[in-house]
Every structure is written in structure tokens, then in C-alpha cells.
Amino acid sequence: GPLGFLAHPALSEESSHSSSGNYGLLDKIAALNWIRDNIAQFGGDPANVTIFGQSAGSQSVCSLMASPLAQGLFHKAIGQSASCLNPGPDPDPDGTTRGQKLVAELPGDGSLNAMRAASPDELLAAAEASGWANASRIVIDGWVLPDTQDSLFDQAQQAEVPLLLGSLSDEGNQLFPLNESLTREKLERYISRLGDTISPETLLSAYTDELADSPGLAQREIATDLFMAYGMRRWAEMHHRTGQPVYLYFMDHIPPAFRLYNPGNPDLKLPDGPRSGGAYHSGDLAFVFGNTRHVGHAWTEEDHELSRRMTGYWTNFAKTGDPNGAGLPAWKPYDPGTHATHLLNSEPETVGGVRREKLDLLAKLLDRG
Q: How far is CA 18 from CA 142, 144, 171, in A?
């Protein structure tokens, strides 16, 4: 939120680096510096540090890989369900336009003193009123990030570390809005704004099932694939160029819904049952942390076994840079020729990519394939 990422010209002016925003990333970098200097006193190995995060945390992992200030502070990285390699130009890369709109919603005269006198509640209300959070919180400030993450990765300036990353099959469910009133004409205009190397009809030929339901569903699923499955594949592809091992996954195992991101519905009685939400955004967290026996309800032995495997993969990777180990189905490294992707379900296996037609068309639409 704005307490961690508000960029504003007045804040940049007082900075010795002419920078503002990205304070949340600076906090993480400070923590990594502390770990380097102190973790040996707690039995840790400062030469074997893994960072990992999910959703906005995954975008932070991706951005820390690109930041020169974080170089050498970690040795492996895991990203779950969000990349920082965004398609298309950002009209406000340094975030100051949005920052000024937010500050205009605060009490006072817009000065630094007035900004600092604002309460957290007032900051959050101003962020909501100004639409501040409608774009990436992480900004290109010229210091923490001297250039766009996309450009830094393209120039192979990111941290050269092993990478494990992936997404789930139904990320957009409840995460991205569903515009039921969207027309076919407006959907085609949306696609045309993404790119013009292929026609909207060509892309929609891969989304016929979604389009048969509604243009709004087709748009949501295109946006979901663009941000998640394609975004993670592209991150894997760009990092593979460094020669470091990359492991890409796709979780299509459907968990029961549990009260993590839906506090207003404590019983989570979905109309079609506890697993009718699909493999939704954040549905992997209980598995990764081995909490399927401790949170939520309606878990099965199949869920517990997948959790055991996932904690094994994640732990092995943190130790060695390779998720493979005794008692785990083999996970082949990613390669750009096949887009090798490990399916996380009751029978994990590595396959030659997922949603190939859709993702390949998105790559062509963005003029990257």
C-alpha cells in the first residue's frame, strides 16, 4: 500500500537519490543485508539464502532479482502467481502521477508536513478514492530500479540465481472482475489495445469455450492468462538465458476453499460445493506451508499428499537449487523449446507446456513469439 510504495515529486526532491516509492522493496533489501551480516549467529548460512513470495510477494521477488541494490544478497528465488515483467508501456512508470492524485485526496495543503500528518486510515482512503492501487505499486524510481524490470531482464542484468516459479489454473476466479455487460465489439477493442500483430479473431479462436459463455468471461480469462500463465512462462524464458536452472510449474489440483481471502464469508459455502472455486489465486499457500491439516476444512488424503510433495520440492530447491529429491516425482527443468512445465496435482509430471495455443498466441499478439 501507500505506506510502502507512495511515490511523489516532493518525496523525490528530498531524496539524495532523487527517488521515491519502493520503500517496501528497500525494507526487504535491509532485511537481506541484516541476514547477510547476522544470520550465521543464529545457525544460518548467509551464502545460501532463498527468497520467495506469492502474488504481490512474487512481484517483489521478480523486482529484487532486477534491483542492483539486492545483488548478491540471495542465492535462489521462488515466485508464485505474479511476475514483474509486464507487457506494454506503463504511462506512469515512476508512480508520481498516481502519487499526486492520492495526495490531492488527503487533508491539508499537499505539503510534506501535511502528507506526514495523515493517518494510515486517511492514506488508505485516499488510495481508494484516487485509484492509486489500479497499477503496480512497485515503480521505476531510478535507484532501486534504474530501469524497467523488463529491460533489466532483457539485458541479463538480473540476479543470476536458480529460479522456481509458476501459477494456478483458475487464478482469475474472484481475483479479476467479470464484466457481464461487455460486448463482443468492446472485447475486440480490448485485444487490439494489447497488440496488433494478430487479429482479435485469431486470439479469440483459442477462447471459443469462454466466449460461448460471454465476452466478459473471455476477457477475464485472457487477462488472467496474460498476467499469470503467460507472465510466469515469460519470466522463465527470459531468465533461462542466464544459464541458471529454471523450474516452471502449473497447479491444476483444486483445493477446497478456505477462509483466507474471504473473511466476509466465514463458512465459505460456495453454491456448487467447497471445490467449485477451481485452483484459485492463493489456493497453493496451504500446500506450500504444509498447513492442510491445520486450516480450513474438507481436505482429503490426496490434498495432504500433494502438500507433502510441494513442501518437499520447495525445501529441496531452497537447499540445493533443485526441487528434485527422494520420494518425489521427477521435475524436469524448464527449456524454451518445449516450455517444460511441471503439473502439480495428484499425479505430478512434467509436460511440454500448458495452454500452449493460448500462450503462444498471446506471445504473438505482444510481438514476442
A: 8, 11, 37
Other CB atoms within 10 A of residue 142 CB:
17
Q: Which residues contact 258 (CB under 8 A, 6 or more apart)?
A: 268, 286, 295, 296, 297
What count of other Cβ atoms lies within 10 Å of the Cβ of residue 30?
11
Residues facing 166 on adjacent strands: 80, 249
CA distances (Å), 210 to each of 18, 203, 217, 221, 222, in order? Answer: 47, 12, 6, 8, 9
Residue 150, Cβ neighbours under 10 Å: how many? 19
Helix (H, G, I), strand (E, B) or coil at 248: strand
Read off the amino acid at residue 328: L
CB 66 within 8 A of CB 84: yes
CA distances from 162 to 23, 159, 292, 328 (A): 26, 9, 28, 19
Torsion of Cα atoms, 270 then 274 then 279 then 282, to 10°: 80
Residue with cell 492468462: 225
How far apart CA 335 and CA 361 sit, in angstroms, is 19
Cβ neighbours of residue 352 closer than 8 Å, sequence gap 6 or more: 338, 339, 340, 341
Are 248 and 232 spatial neighbours (Cβ–Cβ below 8 Å)? yes
Instruction: With residue 115 as reference, give the H or E element that holds it.
Output: helix 112-117
HEC-encoded secondary structure of 290-331: CCCCCCCCCCCHHHHHHHHHHHHHHHHHHHHCCCCCCCCCCC
* Number of neighbouring beta carbons within 10 Å of residue 279: 21
What are the mean pLDDT values of the chain's consecutive 10-residue runs (369 residues total)? 96 97 98 98 98 97 98 98 83 95 96 95 96 92 97 97 98 90 97 94 97 97 96 98 98 87 63 89 95 88 98 98 97 97 96 97 87
Helix axes 56-66, 23-38, angle to 10 degrees: 70
| Residue that is written with C-alpha cell 471445490 in the block | 275
